[in-house]
């Protein structure tokens, strides 16, 4: 009888732990709705959704990376670098000194160029980690500094402020990344970034749970040696997840540039922490092998609501950083506790079956 009661308590605790992020999200929403009068207005909630999309799209790529047991600290710098490259191409074009001409690209072409740049950065990260066996933390920390430095070099630390383009040059349209849809009557419409986030989240969740690639990266994170012995191409898959992370970062670089109507080299500073926090809060284990896109989506909402809610309540930016740091530490501690509880329950189940 006592054993069954203990087992029931463990099952209840596990259920609460699995749903912890959703519970926290509900509590935060209620809290800020009471504390900040403007929090529940349509415009404020749409602003939250816009910021959630930024952290969430970065978090999608980061989820894949962390599931393999890695980390990508370069995502924020890729956001800034891509924004500077795109802004420079729109405002100044590409000057070919040897030919004495300046080329101007259409927005679709700039978008493709920037996504490719993000993918290349991701491939470099993945290759150094998978092929050269370097630590993910060190590699992506290095590329973070390189990306941030190149972003400042691109403009000498200045901002590209004329990014709307010119009809005569055929490079208008970048601001469409910040347009809205479903704007009916007095409703201001849903940001394009939120729609992109929803679409990418559905695709990423399907890939993770229903395709061999998703199963492979889960296997790699769970036990890389066993995955290799079972025939999974570990190096190829690791390079691919970092390429996906780079592509997600590049996309957010373009979206953010459109949202602020300018390109600044420090855009995306510390955003890697927001992405990591969203992923860890969503239940993806830093040890690898466990994670869901749905959890990351909820985690992104938690981070977005914390950021915007504290701003609306007048909490200083410095304290916001302290609170987010504590949230990350707490999330990792809870993840560790959950894994220990799961191991304990598995051991008890084996003992009962003997």
UniProtKB/TrEMBL annotation:
It is a multi-pass membrane protein. The chain crosses the membrane at residues 60-90, 102-128, 134-151, 181-208, 239-262, 274-306. Keywords: Cell inner membrane, Cell membrane, Membrane, Transmembrane, Transmembrane helix, Transport. GO terms for molecular function: transmembrane transporter activity. It is found in: Cell membrane. Its main location: membrane. One of its GO terms (cellular component) is plasma membrane. InterPro entries: ABC_transp_permease. It comes from the Bacteria. This is ABC transporter permease. It comes from Anaerobutyricum hallii.
